[in-house]
Amino acid sequence: MADWKHVLRRVLYPTYEARLVRRLPTDQLPKHVGVMLDGNRRWARAVGRDAEHGHRAGAANIEPLLAWCEELGIEVVTLWLLSTDNLNRPPHELQRLLVIIEEAVASLATARRWRLHPVGALDLLPAETARRLKEAEEQTRDVDGPLVNIGVGYGGRREIADAVRSLLQEHASKGTSIEELAEILDVEHIAEHLYTKGQPDPDLVIRTSGEQRLGGFLLWQSAHSEFYFCEAYWPDFRRVDFLRAVRAYAQRERRFGT
Prior knowledge:
258 residues, alpha/beta, Undecaprenyl pyrophosphate synthetase, six-stranded parallel sheet, 10 helices, 6 strands, globular
């Protein structure tokens, strides 16, 4: 019976996916999608394997996701691979996870289909990890393809704190007093110092694994985003799940906070 179900999925899902794509309104698709790649460890436990196996399965699903985004003309994708909180994991697990992330990012850079941009507190990462992330960014700087933000050592609160710190340092170098800065400071000044400065805010934020919370992902940028929560663990997230998320987005009436 299980084999027949697998055969049916292989036959029916491509047809269903093609119908979903045809029915998507091309003028209502997101330009920037943020994805919280959640559930690797829980997926691994469910299949009786260790956390490393789950992280590797999750890493293997990144390139397909980016291909699905590219297929729909999505211009910016932000992937949250490792939070600042995750840096407190047991050292042996964190080290293995960082190696997997480094390998995944290097593979994306080698493909030269996407422009990679690390977002996060790189100063909190091991020097080798930070070096490889910067290297991937430099390697893909001239790629004519979608922009992919790689969130490693990323936390929304830390990003806002870093933005304010950078803003203060910039004005201090110009001799601006605190009083003068307070008179002119607005949200745009802070936005210009975020990790994603110059980019459009995410239209759609997807979180896998059934968790329905942001957990600090793009806190500033997602003020007007639409959210989609998927029950599937990240390694099980399929093209059909992605298309359903985009369809749900396209069907919503965006109010932008009004």
